[in-house]
Amino acid sequence: MPMLDIASNLLFFDIETVSQFPSFEDLDAQGKMLWSKKSSKLFHHDANDDPQLSYANRAGIYAEFAKVVCISVGYIHRVSDTLYELRLKSFVDHDEVKVLQDFADLLASHYYNIAEHGLCGHNIREFDVPFLSRRMLVHGIKLPSLLDIRYAKPWEREHLIDTLQDWKFGDYKNYTSLDSLCYTFGIKSPKDAMSGADVHAAYYEDEDLTKIGVYCEEDVKATMQVYLRLQNISTEDIELIPISRTRTDA
């Protein structure tokens, strides 16, 4: 059996999110009040306690105040026993509904059987999957079966392969970033050109959706390589060719 068949039914993915508005001042009165309350509880005695500063720096990670601008996906396609292609695609758009619906349609068409298909990413159980599911509900989008885990028991979530959880080996004391795992395994960091902290500026100041899509795809490629190392799968004897198909629908 080819060594990468283990990943043949896995869809690797990553998302990029930003605050729903460029700044705190763009919120309506109720939004300002709600964010100020959340900010005071989350960042009390923190440098980000100021709601204007905390909104710019932190709002993008809370589904109630943020939106999805990019979802990048990738899967491993076997050409031969020694040649594999990493096929990539990004759903990028100012219209969050379109981004979410395109991703939901992809899952409904090709990754719908929990017993046979899986999703893989870094920290997807804590962030990506809950965030996507919440934003889909906000827009009335039917949750794909692989994302609808609201009432699932722990053993019913095994189709969500989380490289952060795999690396923890049951240790819940600390968080390990994808960048750190890349450094540990000698993998090229996806954060060389930009980091998650730069996405807000790339979106609202530069209006560069293509840059965001490329960055998100780099995260997907890095996650795939980390996943293989965590499975103790050597790639020394194979050729892995990334095929990027970034799509910007702005």
Oligomer: single chain
Q: Helices and strands, in N-to-C order?
A: EHHEEHEHEHHHHEE
Structural class of the helices, strands and pairings? Answer: alpha/beta
Task: Give the helix proportion (percent range).
Answer: 25-40%
Question: What is the CATH fold-level name of the largest domain?
Answer: Nucleotidyltransferase, domain 5
CATH homology superfamily name of the largest domain: Ribonuclease H-like superfamily/Ribonuclease H
Low-confidence runs (pLDDT<50, min 5 residues)?
A: none
What is the rounded Rg? Answer: 18 Å
- Name given to the CATH architecture of the largest domain: 2-Layer Sandwich
Strand composition percent? 15-25%
Provide an overview of this structure.
- This protein is an alpha/beta fold and 250 residues long.
- The protein has two domains: 5-20 and 65-248, Nucleotidyltransferase, domain 5, CATH 3.30.420; 21-64, no CATH class.
- The chain has eight helices and seven strands.
- The protein has helices at residues 29-42, 51-58, 96-110, 124-138, 163-168, 178-185, 199-204, 209-230, and strands at 10-19, 66-78, 83-92, 118-121, 160-162, 239-243, 246-248.
- The chain is globular, with a radius of gyration of 18 Å.
- The termini are far apart.
- The mean pLDDT is 87.
